[in-house]
Amino acid sequence: MSEQAKTGGWRENKWFRAAIPALLLHCSIGTVYCWSVFSQEIADYIGFSKASVEWAFSFAIFFLGMSAAFLGNVVERDIHKSSLIATVCFTAGMLLTGFFIYYGGSHQGSVAVLIGIYLSYGFIMGVGLGTGYLSPVKTLMLWFQDRKGLATGLAVAGFGAAKAIASPIMTSLLKTWEDGSGIYKMFWILGLVYLVMMFVGHLLLKKPEGWHEPAAGEKKPGIMEVIRSKPVSNYIGIWVMFYINITCGLALISQEKAIVKCIGLAAFVGVISSISAIFNAGGRLGFSAWADLLKDRNTIYKLIFILSIAFTGLVMITGGIKNGEGNVLLIALVLCLIFVVNAGYGGGFSNVPTLLSDHYGMGSISAIHGLTLSAWAFAGLSGNQLATYIVNHSGEWIDHDGTLVNPVGYQNVLYATGALYVAALVICFVLVRPTAGNKAK
User: pTM for this one?
Assistant: First the structure.
């Protein structure tokens, strides 16, 4: 690194060249988590069941993780190419999703329409999500080398906060056109808005002057060589605990609205959803910034899992979900569980790149972070489905103020997530060991 970089001369533009473009990119792609706002409207407009349409979201998360895993080297070599790929794929996916919904309105029940939505929202947008998620991360850590956790937490918090920002806008757009056409017009309008936001982010994003990347013909260690520089069990531990945290988070978050209704707070579902989104974003920023002050960032994961186990156990023991209605203490416990899991879910994301950089250095961080995000891909397929299977095969469906809910089923989901959290905590202590060279630059 140049003498100018060492003295901090290039840091004067760190907000303009790293933080702002990262927020523009992540606040755009993070709206993928707004899926529940409009999924039923898509199903109704194109004439398919909600369960059939739901696979579009699962595919989006799957291809997010897999594109990050396979395109990590592209991000490593050229962030401008990767951020442009992200901009084109994400916005094209949104616009095409709007087109297939529009076409499906006059061709209800068309399998071609459903496949088109899977390809547009699932595959094309998914590739944009994966490359867009990765592109700013290494740049942020290079600009903020003394506060890497704060920097990555800020961007990833934008991904988490996007739901809280975009959900009311989407709801308003859906209601603007009473004939139902708001569903595809919403995709077209927001697709163009995000095109502008992401393209500006793409233009602004820049690594600090003086940072040296290997030239085209220069030898660079392969990703497996980097992983083997530490005990392989170390990386396996990071991957598995990351996967478990996402799986458990998605399992609970996917049932969040129904759980809130079970404890008698149906009138406050929207408010609680917004608060949980704030905890999600706050966990991304708060936990990662806190980790900057710790000798071993893995301590944050231990804390996340201990808190998750504690509140999961309390709600399990008290039967909070099935017995909570009318009981202020049990309602408070269930809400605390929802908020803690959301915060830990977000914090797990923001700490992964910095934990990896502490163990494996900055040289190949985009590639190794991308490979690790494959855990997100598989968790995206398993988290929701785990909870859905348990709810559909245990307990009993009852009518609760006109809505069918399964309090016992939701309660049983906690037995699975509680066991997984315990396994993750064991992995934290046994496999992911502090190593010489932690807090690697």
Answer: 0.83
